[in-house]
Specification:
The protein has 102 residues and is α+β, with helices and mostly antiparallel strands. It is 18% helix and 35% strand. A two-stranded antiparallel sheet has the order 1-4. The chain has a two-stranded antiparallel ribbon with strand order 2-3. It is extended and about 70 Å long. About 6% of the residues have low confidence.
Length: 102
């Protein structure tokens, strides 16, 4: 193999690895925006509200959206947590619904 080609491959791998690293901001996200919620696209849809996302060096708003409900599951909303000097996004997800026993 050509040494120059190998060097470029190593650089590309390092750049990809750095891009995959999670970056957590030091500043808290701005207040949540009020969103106009359109009608659901059909029955069996659930509204997931918008949230702030940190991209490179600034906050960007990710709009809310309708998603298909998942039978037997409940939505756990995403949220920002303050950890030490940083803020970390905890992604929203579907969790198995708990069955109440009487």
């Amino acid at each position: 193999m050509n040494k120059r080609w190998l060097a470029w491959m190593l650089v590309l791998i390092m750049v990809a690895a750095l891009a995959a690293c999670a970056v957590s901001p030091r500043t808290a996200p701005p207040p949540l925006r009020r969103e106009m919620r359109n009608a659901p696209p059909g029955s069996g849809y659930f509204w997931v509200p918008g949230h702030w996302e940190w991209r490179s060096r600034d906050w960007y708003w990710v709009r809310g959206q309708w998603v298909r409900e998942r039978p037997g599951r409940v939505w756990v909303p995403g949220h920002w947590e303050h950890r030490g000097k940083r803020h970390v996004w905890v992604r929203g997800h579907w969790r198995r619904a708990r069955v109440r026993h009487r």
